[in-house]
Predict the structure.
Amino acid sequence: MSEKELEELKVKAWGNRAKGRSVRWRMIRDTMSVVSVYWMTLSEVETCMVRIWGLTRKKTRELLEEMVSIGDCIVEKDEKTHDLRYHLKQDRVKFWLGVHGLKAIPAGIVQVVEISRSVKGLEV
């Protein structure tokens, strides 16, 4: 199979996993997929979710705070910059991303994360 065909299957599986779930659940899942690979600052996550869903920064913050409060996401404060950084707990990856874990994330989401992180590096 070509890379294009594999990506199409991945996107289809991503959509199928969300069947019967609300749009809110899909937004939370995409937020959790954004913070699943890297520790990301609040600003980076907010930027990603604006690009993926068009969410306001306030709504992204609310989703992250909710996931932290129920224990699916870890938050820590960077001692140098004093920014809050978020990361998906490893034992919750299977629930949010499926049995294939990080490999199940569609390329579109991965691209948004990589672009947001590379732009952040250029700003500093």
Remarks:
- Strands lie at 40-41, 73-77, 84-88.
- Helices lie at 3-17, 23-34, 42-53, 57-70, 93-97, 107-123.
